[in-house]
Amino acid sequence: MSDRRVFRWASTSARMLVGSVVAIGAVVAVVTAVSIPWPTLAREPVAVVATPAPASTVLSCDGGLLVAGRDLTEAGALQQAAPQTVVIGAAPDAPVPDSQALSSADVPGADGPTVVTAEPSTTGRTDLAAAGSATAASDDLVGFSASACRPPLMDSWLVSGSATTGSADFILLSNPGAVAATVQLTVHGATGAQTPPGGADLIVPAGTQRVIPLAGLARGELSPVIRVTSVGAPVQAAIQSSLTRVLEPGGVDQAGAVTAASEVQTIAGVVVTEVSAGGSAATVVRVLSPAGDTDATVTVRDVVGGASALAPITVPLAAGIPTEIGLNGLEVGEYVIDVEASLPIVSGVWQTSGTGEGSDFAWLLPSPAISVPTLLAVPDGPTATLTLVNSGDTATAVTVSDADGSDAVTVDLSPGGATRFDVSARQGYLLDSAGVPVLAAVTMSGDGALAGFPIWPADAAAPAITVYP
How far, rounded to the nearest angstrom, does the alpha carbon of residue 338 sit from its chain's CA centroid? Predict the structure, then answer.
């Protein structure tokens, strides 16, 4: 019995010893496998680079100046007070652009806004520019308006207009496309952002313009900012503003949209023709921080020389609530206004030529950066000025010529530098900044006339895309 027990113990001990050796060997093998790099097989996915066919270039204009209340039997009915004259700029060798008018059921019997279309050439998309102007001179509407014709957008901001007593402003929504657009208007006012019933699910049929009274969306708002979002088709958005002081018309303007919020916005070509007096600022900055609380700093500098015209002004911004800053103390001159914040903002500048009879006002908006050769058009009207600002980090030589490249003028701009020179009305120009981003704006002013608009960069051809089949 004892021998068998000893044998069993010895057998069990042997099995345990063998098992331990095997386990230790497995651990050593795993550690060695982890520490030694194994051969790998890398296979790049099949990729095909394709360039989409260039599309047509489509620009939509704001249309003629509108007025309400002329028909005593229907106070809300709209009429056209003055038609818009459109100037088109195109390269001589480009396909001839086509012009047609949108329909507008909201303004019976009036010519709708002009849409300019250029088909692509054999080498790519066709660069195109257009701008329109109109002059009103009647008992209920006086002033000059000039605005650029723009491509429609899916998302944009309107930083202009008012819905207080004396204002008669309209939101203009144009759909030059082939399918209907459904638009949401989000109004940012004194109580924050809201989508009023009159701004929700607005249908803008293809080939039409809708006109929505601003007072119906934001009654009593002094400084509204409106976000325009579209589904189905992009729309071109603008605001027509007009002002009556007591019974005296005080000007009219049409202002387009700001494409996107950004931390730095520059308004170029602010022409001050009236010194602020009586506590009422002749130049006012409107700014909104959509996403959060922040501080905005406004700086004003001379176009020529770059000297500071005012001490920097810093104001707190509450999320979603517009703020206005009056620039009292600005002397008559030409300025560049920078608005900066730590969060993305949208901004605009309102200025007036006076408060008496025959005065006019204008809304000026930030200029997007231009780094590719770009056409611009100057509409019919009073003296026009082109302002250029170098927003890049390197010096550049900017060339401005006629649309065909003739009569070229070249100006040197250091980083942050600005300049201005006169341009001719009813003329197309070509702007080339040699690849350095610059900002540009056209301002027009004269007796009883004030208007301006930023220059947008040319639409580049569709970039190549990579397809993974």
Answer: 16
Q: What pLDDT score does 25 carry?
A: 53
Burial class (CB in 10 A: 0-12, 13-18, 19+), 29: exposed
Alpha-carbon gap, residue 212 to 30, rounded angstroms: 74
Phi then psi dihedrals of residue 266, to 5 deg? -120, 125
For the record, the structure tokens of 273 come out as: 């023709």
pLDDT digits (tens, 9 = 90+) for 10-32: 344 444 444 554 455 554 454 45
Beta strands in 281-332 (DSSP E): 283-288, 294-302, 313-317, 323-326
Please list, in sequence order, all residues whose beta carbon lies within 8 angstroms of the beta carbon of residue 195, skipping any fewer than 6 positions away: 184, 185, 186, 187
Q: How many CA atoms lie within 13 A of 112 on its CB side?
A: 22
Separation between Cα atoms, residue 372 and residue 354, nearest integer Å: 38
The two three-digit tokens of residue 172, written as one number: 């203009």
pLDDT at 458 over 70: yes
**Do residues 121 and 68 touch, judged by C-beta distance below 8 A?**
no
Beta bridge partners of 333: 272
Distance CA 144, CA 148 (A): 14
At residue 9, φ and ψ (nearest 5 deg) are: -60, -40
109-118 in b/e burial notation, b at 16+ Cβ within 10 A? ebebbbbbbb
- The answer to whether the beta carbons of residues 146 and 132 sit under 8 Å apart is yes
Nearest to 221 by CA among 294, 257, 298, 169: 169
Element of type H or E holding 38: none
The pLDDT, as a whole number, for residue 466 is 53
204, 234 Cβ separation under 8 angstroms: no
| Confidence class for position 101, pLDDT limits 50, 70, 90 | very high
| CA triple 378-384-386, angle to 5 deg | 80
Per-residue model confidence as pLDDT tens digits over 107-119: 988 889 999 999 9
pTM of the model: 0.86
Three-class DSSP category at 322: coil
**Residue 14, class by beta-carbon neighbours within 10 Å (0-12 exposed, 13-18 middle, 19+ buried)?**
exposed
Instruction: Name the burial class of residue 429, with classes exposed (0-12), middle (13-18) and buried (19+) by CB atoms within 10 angstroms of its CB.
Output: buried
Q: What are the structure tokens assigned to 310, written together?
A: 């005012």
Beta bridge partners of 153: 235
